[in-house]
Design brief:
- The chain has 276 residues and is of the alpha+beta class.
- It is globular and about 60 Å long.
- The chain is built from nine helices and 13 strands.
- It has helices at 3-16, 48-56, 79-88, 90-95, 127-130, 155-161, 173-176, 179-189, 201-214, and strands spanning 37-42, 63-70, 110-115, 134-135, 138-139, 141-147, 150-154, 217-219, 226-228, 231-238, 241-242, 253-259, 264-270.
- A hairpin with a 4-residue loop joins strand 12 (253-259) and strand 13.
- 29% of the residues lie in helices and 24% in strands.
Length: 276
């Protein structure tokens, strides 16, 4: 049994034993039933094979992954309320206290960008071979250049970060809005102490495994096709306070993934930390 399957069985086993109390909306003075959350577990990025790889890429120490169960049907028309309740929840705040601090008992506004989350395979990365950024798995090198502390030493990082590059159009604007692309770039760009890969294989493998652990896929009963039901939001600010007020950086990221059918919310967090 693979690591992801073991992990998913552990998560669903915990979920099945949980009870979540309904919370009256009067607690927050909104005249509605608020979403209540229970902490399930931290993410399986701490499993041995992930810990080793993520440490090599310099992201393990600054990466947070937290799973929660919520108490009522998710309504796509009430995203603002859902996110406000999530970051107002005492259970959520306790779980992520090592990552965030809050100055108010309840959140009034969460600023976010909704990402696309429709990919069910890794086909979008085949273009890297077609454009010869990757040749037989090998990532083509280039002279070193620095972008916000990230060493751009190959064409893969160039096409991700450098808008003036002839390779920037390898991925379209729509593709760059896909959550799968965000997971891929998080791993490829790494942290300040990243030991980069010469071959793309491990990046694609870990992208696929992490993505599958975050989102929820279902089968359409009519067509039989698989689709991703998850809603993904990249959070920019909470109560008009920037998550990272000191400096914006491409590797400063906070995502909320909502998996409606299993009433699961996931918080994925990474902070860029410079060591010099």
């Amino acid at each position: 049994m693979c690591i992801r399957d073991r992990y998913q069985r552990r998560v669903h086993g915990i979920i099945s034993k949980m009870e979540i109390k309904e919370v009256s909306g009067k607690d927050f003075g909104e005249g509605r039933d608020v979403y209540a959350f229970d902490f399930i577990t931290k993410g399986y990025t701490e499993e041995k094979n992930f810990k080793q790889q993520f440490s090599q890429w310099g992201i393990f120490e600054n990466l947070g992954l937290y799973y929660f169960r919520f108490n009522q049907r998710y309504d796509e028309l009430q995203v603002d309320s859902f996110l406000n309740d999530l970051f107002s929840s005492a259970e959520v705040r306790k779980a992520i206290s090592s990552e965030f601090s809050f100055n108010t008992p309840a959140v009034g506004k969460v600023s976010y960008e909704k990402l696309k989350c429709t990919m069910t395979n890794m086909d979008m990365f085949e273009v890297l071979e077609k454009r010869e950024i990757v040749v037989e798995g090998y990532i083509k090198k280039r002279f070193d250049e620095f972008f916000d502390g990230i060493t751009i030493q190959d064409l893969l990082r160039e096409c991700i970060l450098m808008e003036e590059s002839e390779y920037y159009d390898v991925f379209s604007t729509e593709e760059r809005q896909q959550f799968l692309f965000h997971v891929f770039t998080l791993l490829v760009l790494g942290g300040a102490l990243c030991q980069y890969e010469d071959y793309i294989t491990e990046y694609l493998k870990k992208t696929k495994e992490l993505y599958k652990s975050l989102v929820s896929a279902r089968k359409d009963p009519t067509s039989g096709s698989i689709f991703v039901e998850s809603n993904v939001f990249r959070v920019k600010a909470i109560d008009d306070t920037q998550i990272w007020p000191e400096k914006s950086h491409p590797q400063n990221r906070l995502y909320v993934i909502v998996n409606p059918s299993i009433r699961q919310a996931v918080i994925l967090y990474h902070k860029w930390r410079s060591y010099w």
